Amino acid sequence: MRRVTIHDVADKAGVSLATVDRVLNGRPGVRKVTIERVQAAVRDLNYEPDAFAAGLAKKRNYRLHFLIPNGPNAFMEDLSREARDFASTLMRERVSVHIEPIDAFDAHRVTGTLAVLDKSVCDGVAVVAPSFPEVRAAIDRLQDRGVHVVTLVSDHPASTRRHFVGIDNVAAGRVAGRLLGRFLPKEPAKIAFIAGSLGLRDHADRYAGCTQVLDNEFPHLELLKVREGRDDNGKNHDIALKLLKEHPDLAGLYNIGAGNRGLIAAIEETRRGAGLTFIGHELTPYTRTALQNGTMDALIAQDPGHEVRSAIRVLKALCDGAPIVEGQERIGIDIFLKDNLPDLA
Amino acid sequence: MRRVTIHDVADKAGVSLATVDRVLNGRPGVRKVTIERVQAAVRDLNYEPDAFAAGLAKKRNYRLHFLIPNGPNAFMEDLSREARDFASTLMRERVSVHIEPIDAFDAHRVTGTLAVLDKSVCDGVAVVAPSFPEVRAAIDRLQDRGVHVVTLVSDHPASTRRHFVGIDNVAAGRVAGRLLGRFLPKEPAKIAFIAGSLGLRDHADRYAGCTQVLDNEFPHLELLKVREGRDDNGKNHDIALKLLKEHPDLAGLYNIGAGNRGLIAAIEETRRGAGLTFIGHELTPYTRTALQNGTMDALIAQDPGHEVRSAIRVLKALCDGAPIVEGQERIGIDIFLKDNLPDLA
DNA sequence: CTAAAAATGAGTAACGCACCTCAGATGCTT
DNA sequence: AAGCATCTGAGGTGCGTTACTCATTTTTAG
């Protein structure tokens, strides 16, 4: 059960090592018939290159940059932490991760950060950024310069980015809609929506998915117009208080974006938890507690750890031209009820 | 930004390469003070061994065996397929996976299969098997022989297995309970349960979790006694027909085990889909369709692909004494509604 | 048919580490 | 201070591949 090496392939094909190497690494200077002969030998012998030897000989190393929004956002902090943690276990595999905090709302600065990157500095970039056209253009230019780019959490479908690591936000919104519809009694009731901004692609997608399901399958529910709170806890707190006052009979609440903390506080202050079905996004210490004590009823989440590891795997695969294991890289929508919260790490 | 190598460590510690090697690989013949000096240098320089070079030099290879129940079970077939698929991409990393079909209900044969395994044949084993004491004992003996063992899907907590790859079935049951409780109107109603066998640990766990939530938080619901269908579609079909006849007002149904196909058929034949909230486990072509057309209301699943890849990563880590990334190996409970079904691969 | 161009063979130096040997140095005991 | 055990240094080899160079053979064009 010895490993099959290029020597065996060379023997089988009746050529020299050098020729096998030329074929395997796509170097020029080999006749078509010879190429085919070598490839046939590879197939026959079921040859697989040895990743250890190849990595060693290639002196390969993977310099990855992660551009992640800063600011007091628990989810983004988790992303950064997971990236750092996973990177440390991957040092010995020659993966180095540099985390660059960015201001997600300042498209100009983000563009500038992308503009200075270059093949001489890094091999792959994962970026979390809002979908401004200039950012898309910067991504495209970066790829032209030979740096692989994946979008993280929030996609830029129009760009040439090689992969998107994140959840399907339309589906996430649909899930929220169905849970609201099914959790509430089958009778007329009001539902309120709070978003960071419908200008953000993921928020808009979630809203669209949610209203689609509610309009079609739960037409007895009245949907109030969306309030935008810029993902800010203070703003959301005020919005919620006003909302609860204006609509004493409010039955459902869907927070499309971040800033759950402000909403939770408002609901608990007014002791409206029992009568209100409240669904939000992302697992944080605050939402966890709210789910446990009944203030929140369901949480739709994405696992930042999974996303970071997926992004790194994908970028690595892109760097050495390896195929991407699709099933492995599909990020699922996590639905948390108080019953299936993961243990705290 | 050159890589730090053992040469650098040797220089820094003022010793030779041989000594560094002795320390790093735990070989004898080094004074305690020297060991400490080398370790200090390692820390100072932040030295990390190069996985490529180490793997190459060690001629390491990972021979893994997967023992997976055969029989007409879509989930187990998925497991096997995923194992094969992932293994093929890992050949170049010197991971070879052998899949051994077993008869999960024949503990004696399973024990026999485990008994002949040995360090000379394989380095790690992942086993899906019911929790009979003899199987547990066989696992322990196998580990004593130096072969790492992880349990897959169904755990043997009492054994010395190094890791369990699978979901928390009690939590899964609780989720089923809460979804039933919240999907149904807040008024008295009957709920039926079908299991493969409460003798199977995972089924018993799910049942316990589900009734715990229903009893405590939804006391208005009446829980009928569990029917056991041995995970057989034919048996389940008959059970369902009888159940629907005996209880024309049945409001909820939870299939704890496999054999959803039989239940789906029975419900669709009797046109009882609309009035019945039906929750089951595992995503298969049948349950997918049932969810889409409304026969089923929710699906609680575990991703066989994730589980296989996790098992392989864990076994690999155990083989070379590397730490396990806990967060990465936690298998989440997937909750599928008709809104978040993954695209077909 | 010949000269130029293209294809191939043969060989070699890395890559970083594991593992081995053997000689020499150092410490410790009497 | 000799004798012994214990440490340590120097050096070599092998792992499978990459990425060269240089010489040689084959093919192609004129």
TrEMBL record, chains A, B:
HTH lacI-type domain mapped to chain residues: 4-58
GO molecular function: DNA binding
The keyword DNA-binding appears for this protein: yes
Superkingdom field: Bacteria
Keywords from the named record: DNA-binding, Transcription, Transcription regulation
Annotated InterPro entries: HTH_LacI (IPR000843), Lambda_DNA-bd_dom_sf (IPR010982), Peripla_BP_I (IPR028082), SBP_2_dom (IPR025997)
Coiled coil residues, start to end: none
Entries under PANTHER family matching the protein: LACI-RELATED TRANSCRIPTIONAL REPRESSOR, TRANSCRIPTIONAL REGULATORY PROTEIN
Protein name: LacI family DNA-binding transcriptional regulator
Organism: Roseibium litorale
